[in-house]
What does this fold into?
Amino acid sequence: MKARSVSGLGCFLGTFAILLTIFGLWATVLSGRRLITVAESYTWEKWGCQIESSSLGSGADADRSNEVVVKYRYRFRGHDLVGSTVEPGYHGSRSRLEAERLLARFPPGSDTSCYVDASTPGRSALIRPGYGKPVAALAFFLLLSCLGGFGAWWGFRLKETPQNSAAFGQAISESARSSQSVGCIIAFLSIFAVMGLGLLIPFFLVPVVRSLSARGWQAVPCEILASEVEAHPGNDGDTYSVKVRYRFTAGGRQIEGDRYSFISGSSSGQAGKQEVVDQLPAGKETTCYVNPDDPYDAVLERGLTSDIWFGLVPLAFVVVPGGIALLLWRTSRRQLQVGKASWAPGAAGKATPAAAQVPMPYGSEPIVLKPSLGPIGKFAGMLLFALFWNGITGVFVGFIAKAWQKGESPGCQTAFITPFVLVGLFAIWGVFYQLLALFNPRPVLTLSRGGVARGGRVELGWKFRGLPGRIRHLKIRLVGREEATYRQGTRSVTDRQAFAYQEVLDTQNPAEIREGWTTVEIPVDTMHSFEAGHNKVVWTLSLAGEIARWPDISEDFPFVVLPQEESR
It folds into this structure.
């Protein structure tokens, strides 16, 4: 028996899974190093110290305006030492409010605790970093690596259908191999659905929840200190955001804030942002809203702005891959029941049901077969997918690129978006692949008559438009496929599974590749073409032509197999 080769789907999924594994391992190593650093700080000794000075970085320096600068003294084992580290790895706060909150913890002249590295007494910090984020990052990337490794192992185990007549009679209910490929696809799609949900939470759900909770916040008078429209350069043009700084009094303290709304990031539409800024000139007295439980949690606009719709973009990653994965999962659960249909292998010799009809006209004259989906259709489908996928992904890539350009370090965002970018690159490669395939030789298949019965024979002819000399290896295979449609709740689900698979032609002879004729015999112990209300049997001739250093030819040509009774 001829050894089976890895399927095209398996190669794609396996290759993608390998890239995902490499990325996951790299991110796991970085997360592990960060976790080691955090764990190391918990071995430091807790010691008393006194804050000598504390302030925010110079407002003239935009990179340090939200950074808390401290100086503290401590006596460790008879030595007077000076420290200036707030927290290992700290390089400033994300917002002015966070910096103000941190600054309030360490007023000048106050006594507090610091943590000292006993092996290097000059190494100290006021705060030890938490375990939560490093552990979560390590667990996530470790899981991603395991999923990628398992996906690579699974993908490269997916084999093509056996190329011999023993495949006849294999119904949907008896196909364990198909469930492997379906399971792999479900796992592949589920990864992106989970990632999409991970983006939907911070970009849409969190702002909505915070906006609703802010309805009970206190209205506090505040003064606008500065406001402007901040431009964020990008590859596809600039995006804009409202940059504002204001001062208010809460909890007996004077606090500066810089949060305009709960929606972070930037978007197009400079005019709209400029209208907001024009209404908030420096020196204007207005109202901001302060969390009564936390005076350092404040906002100017507590309602939802129009930018909230941008937060729904990740929903496409949840609905499309997640919906397909759910549909495949629900379909696979019914495969055993579908195999009990009246036209299963055990009932192949029974008479045709009264409701069944041959789906295509047939006769005794030669016919030229038409492909089910030609190169143009494949190119158009891949192009639409690439435009859709990369259009959505490109928006997030632009935001992250701008953050790196500004000197920020959005490592988590970069790690999160990388798998999406890899899929986008695969899609772009697929567009160019299908574009090149448009220039392939076009196969023309001819049957000596329009219909052939079970157990009958028909002459098959082939030739090519174009340059068939480029083809190195030509294969033509006979494939019978079952399709069953059934109701599942309020939805219709269709199962498809090949039950017959037979090699008709396998040649590397240039003369035979160019054109020729052969005989196709339809086994008598199988099922004819028909189309009922919910069941269908489709027969095709699958042509595959290998071209060196160029996209291969791969097209399916449906034709009619008649009931044996009608051939008499």
About this structure: DSSP finds ten helices and 20 strands in the chain.
